[in-house]
Amino acid sequence: MSDSFAAKLRQLSAAEDFLDFFGVAYEKRVVNVSRLHILKRFYQYIRQEPHLPENNEQALYQCYRNLLIRAYEDFVKSTPAQEKVFKVFQEAEGHQHVTLQNLKSTLPSQGGAAPSFTVPAAPRAA
Questions:
Q1: How big is the chain by its Cα radius of gyration, in Å?
Q2: Is 72 exposed, middle or buried (0-12, 13-18, 19+ CB in 10 A)?
Q3: Side-chain half-sphere of 86: how many Cα atoms within 13 Å?
Q4: How do residues 16-66 score in pLDDT, each as one tens digit?
């Protein structure tokens, strides 16, 4: 990747910046809901790409553009919860499971540790 292309990419931060830079038409509504998901998926696609063009800035630009279009279209057709780009969506559909047995084991009567806390002393009258 040439220094000028890399420098231009480093200046981009928002999803809209990337989409504008690569000339990708987009709906504001989709980007508002999925901006971080689109960028994360774009990065994943770049890392998975086995044959990124080297020493050809124009070919690399086109490759990145195609990967960004692919990432954006994932969220036009789907939702962040369905695509599961981030860990919170990957783990049990975003739900944490706590069994009744786990809750019971925290009770002092069941051998769990009693909660410890210090009650502050009441202020003394002067």
A1: 25
A2: buried
A3: 12
A4: 999 999 999 999 998 998 888 888 889 888 989 988 988 889 999 999 999
CA atoms within a 13 Å half-sphere pointing along the CA-CB vector of 56: 10
Torsion of CA 7, 11, 17, 23, to 10 degrees: -20
- Please report, as a single letter, which amino acid is at residue 28: K
Task: Report the C-alpha gap between 39 and 116 in whole angstroms.
Answer: 44
User: pLDDT, tens digit, for every residue of 68-100?
Assistant: 999 999 888 865 555 455 454 445 454 555 567
- Look up tokens 């690569």; give the residue: 22
Say if residues 71 and 41 touch (Cβ distance below 8 Å).
yes
What is the Cβ-side half-sphere exposure of residue 14, based on CA atoms within 13 angstroms?
A: 6
pTM for this predicted structure:
0.63
Q: Write the DSSP string, 5-50.
A: HHHHHHT--SHHHHHHHTT----HHHHHHHHHHHHHHHHHHHHH-S
